[in-house]
User: Fold these one by one.
Assistant:
Number 1:
Amino acid sequence: MSKDKLKIYKFVTNGTQSMILNQIRNHAPISRTTIVSNTNLTHAAVSRSVAVLLKNDIVKESPLSDEKGPRRKRGLILNPEYGCCLAVGYTAFGLEGVIVDTAYQALVTSERKVPLNSMTQEQVIQQIKNFTEELRQKIPPNHTDCIGLAVIDPGIIDIENGVSLFSSTLNDWKNVPVKDILENHFNLPVMLFNNSNATITAIDRLENPTLSPNLMYVQYGRGIGSSLKLEGKYIFGHADLAGELGHIRVTAEPVPCHCGGIGCLEAMAALPALARNTSRMLLDNSVSSLKGTENLSGIDVLKAAAEGDRLATHVVEEAYTYLGQVVASVVNVVNPELLIFDHLVGLAGKNCVETLIRSLRKDIMEPHAKTLQIRISEQESHLNAMGGAFAILDYCLEK
Ligand SMILES: [Zn+2]
């Protein structure tokens, strides 16, 4: 197949179809009348375009959830069997993948823990190829039309050319033409995304039921970062570097951060900091259920805090207080309506989460505090892969 055939195809041929499909994606099941009132398109234009979309199997009629009344109204939904999309994300510690249907539902998820950080570039590429091939084998028989492959890279990327420029977490990963390598191997169109592109796309679809145009997501784990949607647009910054929440300085203490700075939020409050601080306190003969735990991890500390361990609670509360202060500063600047924390934050239990919210609310200006909604994400895994797949589908829906 020639190279230019490896293009992700659009589901629409004009802007009207695109507007209608966006309405259906966001509000399915939705009636033609509601599409007319939401878009200011004419009834005739909506009817005509919907007829084309139905004929092409891109959308389907489905009963509306409200089936009362003499004439049951029908609604339009995206046809899940129109096709599917593969997505594979990789980090220093392994790979995750999903197959998503054309109605934005995950059909298959998979993951593999493997230390990619200690491998050569060739070995990492081989791991990605093998993992993707195994995922492709799992495409269900009624979804065989595969639209494309989304690949989510942990580093800095050149989106246009599909090249990973640099990753601080993979040792041998510089100027890797990921898109070309995988397109040639799989004969499938590939789109390359970075973590922050994928994360905000996934969070926006999965955790934003009211479709708020102003959204902030706080990612918490080995690192700390943030993703933003403001006035309906995802914000990545001039060089795609926006969101480095973890590298805001929170203390004058000379605690080194891997970014080269000192006293960064990430160095004081991310998972490795929880493990380090707890281990140090355990050396002082403090009483704790974590005493004697081999290879103590930050997750161990969060779980012990949830079970009421006092030492763990103290360590987590100190970290969450810093986190709350930094997030509050950003909230004051960008004024989100909805603030969502990584699900890992909730692992520490109700009391620690209350400490976080208290710290946050203390530093938010009052008018912000009145309108801000806060929640903890329910998405435990595969956020990046889901976001990559959704981003491809979003692309297909745009004119
Ligand atoms: Zn830093």
Number 2:
Amino acid sequence: MGRNRWGWASNRRLGSNRSTRSTRSAKLIGLVTLVVFAASGCTTDQALHFGWPPAITPQGEKMRQFWMYAGFAALIVGVIVWALIFWTVAFHRKRKNAPADELPRQFQDPGKLELVYTVIPFVIIAVLFYFTVTTQNFVLNKIPNPDVEVNVVAFQWNWEFDYKGYHTPDGQDVKTIGSSQEIPLLVLPTEKVIQYDLLSTDVIHSFFVPAFNFKRDVFPDPSKNNQDSSFQNTIDQTGPFVGRCAELCGTYHSMMNFEVRALTDDEFNQYMKLRESIDPQTNQPYTASAALTKLGQDDPSCGTLCTPYAVTTHPFDTDRTSGSASQDTGLNTGDN
Ligand SMILES: [Cu+2]
């Protein structure tokens, strides 16, 4: 039995035991990985992106790609570290019959090794930092003249969307305000640069559209709070997408929902033309739902995109007698 450079015993028989053990470990790791993926019910795409959902904006997709590559980088580092740990544990244990005071070869001042494990993490951090900054710059980039600019006003507990540069016949800005009965629709065009200017009239809210993979806090007095309160993006898919308030802002925070309705540019222009004109049925400017109804009547191919009310979420029922608990107990109904 000879001694290897680590000072521990080794021979051929030991070597063959080792290879059997490695094969067994590899099989076990493979099986565990397979079970984890199969049991999670993830598609390959979801698994590759570590659960991040696809986005409907190039900005959101960029972050999703970054997340995926950062995950791969972390996994590669993880696999190397795990391999070193298991290799040490499996093949560099103290022999059973080794003398109690026997020590493996001792290293003094392993300068080259120290250099390696200082330089490699530094390179990893530098690469991650580079991609973090370039992704962030892409996501937060703003051009001077966006195609559409919307004031997003958050208040307890709803939203107002105020379109800059679009006016009703009486000179007011075209705006959509949510109520307890109606979810506000933020109608927007696809393939255009949209700027969102965020403002709160009371507490801190947060503008969150899950399909954007992006959210930003909505502050009162953003300039006094030293906040850049606007961002831009481009939506590349038509459809209805739910929006939420993502900052606990009071009693009805969870009901503070809205819907982004992304139309084609052509449909959006028709929608805005209606919003800027008088609805003959009411003699008032077209509301969001009336304009969408008219759009759907004029062009039946618009389909669900022209549904007059939100389809991704529904208004909170403010009738306190409607809860099953109240009906069962007679509490809060005022008529017991
Ligand atoms: Cu809120």
